[in-house]
Amino acid sequence: MKNFVTLAAGLMVAASFMSSAASGQTVLKSSDTHPDGYPTVEGVKYFGELVKERTQGRYSVEVYHSAQLGEEKDTIEQVRSGVIELNRVSMAPFNGTVKESIVPALPYIFRSEEHMHKVMDGAVGDQIKEAFEPAGLVVLAFYDAGARSFYNKTKPINSVADMKGLKFRVIQSDIFVDMVAALGANATPMPYGEVYSGIETGVIDGAENNFPSYDTAKHAEVAKNYSLDEHTILPEVFVMNKAAFDKLKPEDQEIFKQAAKDSVAKQRELWAAKVAESRTNVEKLGAQITTPDKQGFIEAMAPVYEKHVKDDVLKKMVEDVKAVQ
Fold first, then answer.
1. Both 138 and 155 in a single domain?
2. Segment holding 77, helix H or strand E
3. Could you name the domain of life of the organism this protein comes from (predicted)?
């Protein structure tokens, strides 16, 4: 049934695209798993407004939020194949395709969100953007997704020892699986949309994510213990199908790039406000927020780095990230 619904949505989108194209306007489809109003959704909407304005209406963007076009794994394939033109997605699922995307996904690679901004806005970010092109994608922007932390329905986590034996949902990424294993817990990759029921039914004990996701997906209703270990500050990536981008006139390519850059500032502003709002919301729901000593978590990550930072390119990138002040 789910695949049928997704296919039906895709056919509706195609029909909309054809009718719009007939009117002289090219409508680009963009996917997001998060609900309407979420900062990443609003960031892409703002990008679309700027593109429409700056191309005098020749291009517009339709944002399909709430996983209307499928979960992230599905929409990544859709944008790579050109079924949809745009996609906002976590960077972690690209770790097996674009090796440079491994670096920002490493646990504790960033000292703070400000550090992450400086890295992704600089030479390392440019290097990662270039690495996406052979995969058929053009990176338009890196969006904020805050710090990810563990939460569960069983007990507060104040140390690595408290992680032992717990089952956590993670993004479909080997790094995340290995990170959880290094902490003595069990990782269960599953789609974002299945986390609530997974916790509720006991398939998993909890998950790991930022405050806005913990809030808007209602996970705080079923997992009351939130531990601010802040293991990853993983940026989101806003990508465009490369063939679609290459078809744009050079002046339109510049418009798209600048609109994306302008949308980053907007998205970061919305993100900061949403984090504060979501923390208040989950505390009202009775979430217990603890702050463990991170040093034990950091020290446990040595085997993760050893396994995933294998070649000289990645080793150099890690050093470049650490050098950014």
1. no
2. helix 72-81
3. Bacteria
Q: What pTM did the predictor assign?
A: 0.85
User: Residue 44's domain spans which residues?
Assistant: 2-144+235-276
- Token pair, residue 67, equals 């996983």
Are both 247 and 114 inside the same structural domain? yes
CATH number at residue 228: 3.40.190.170
Amino acid, res. 156 = P
What phi and psi, each to the nearest 5 degrees, are found at residue 60?
-140, 165
Give the DSSP per-residue string, 104-158. Answer: HHSTT--SSHHHHHHHHTSHHHHHHHHHHGGGTEEEEEEE----EEEEESS----
| Burial class for 265, CB neighbours closer than 10 Å (0-12, 13-18, 19+) | exposed
Cα dihedral 224, 146, 187, 155, rounded to 10, equals: -20
Of 104, 246, 111, the closest CA to residue 173 belongs to: 104
CB 39 within 8 Å of CB 267: yes
Q: How far apart are CA 106 and CA 294, in angstroms?
A: 15
Distances (CA, A) of 40 to 65, 92, 130, 236, 295: 10, 16, 22, 8, 31
Asked if 107 and 179 count as a contact pair (C-beta separation under 8 A), the reply is yes
Pair (83, 199) in one structural domain: no
Domain count, the chain: 2
Per residue in 238-286, pLDDT tens? Answer: 999 999 999 999 999 999 999 999 999 999 999 999 999 999 999 999 9
SS (H, E, C) 222-233: CCCEEEEEEEEC
pLDDT digits (tens, 9 = 90+) for 162-178: 999 999 999 888 999 99
Nearest to 72 by CA among 229, 195, 230: 195
Is position 229 within any domain?
A: yes
